[in-house]
Amino acid sequence: MASKMTDRLMALDPPGFKAATQHPWLRLIGQSKLPADAQLQWLQQDRIYALSYVAFIGNLLAKVQLPITTDREQSLEWRISDMLIEALVNIRRELAMFEDILRRHFDWGQNVQEDTVQANTTTRIYQQLFGAATAPNAPLSVGMAALWGTERCYLEAWRFAKQQNATSAGQYASDDVVRQILIPNWTSTEFESFVNDIGNLLNELTERSAATDEEKVRCDEMWRQVLWCEERFWPEVDLVDGA
Where does the record place the Thiaminase-2/PQQC domain (predicted)? Predict the structure, then answer.
């Protein structure tokens, strides 16, 4: 029996997955030792990423051919569309979350010109990855692999941060944001269920369509690109106090 696509991808590059999800930035934020400027840098770039994610999901939706049969709600295509619509709802909520944190804790929006941050190199590469994943010649499975890859990495990354035994009283004013908002958002059972749903749909899609070797290789390449981007998306930090 052929292995599931998600199992295939997870087995491709375990060191790359570890590097993408156990970055020093995550260790420090979990230990409440992350300088405020390092958190601000990430928040600004993740907000830009989230805006790009909206177009990415929209382009994925455009690739799904919905059936007109009476049992459409049970069809794979409809279930994929339903999941993608949920992804849009989630990212709208997260955009509001980012902007609320930036306003409350970093005085974001006080000076529009100064607060308009551009995408850095890694964020621009991520935007290009989203474009490649939804290009006209890209199978839906490749875009789904990109989506599952980004969300799977985020789930594991914030689990790692949660495991770092964050202290009850952080050194920085942003500490409560980390423990009360950021970590719970990406380690919740709801988010885990969402990630699993994407993976199950990806597996079903590739199994039903009997993905060709070329299609599998393209999914492999997309996964490796996601791991490369994820590792570099976390800002560089200096480990301190023996962290």
Answer: 19-235
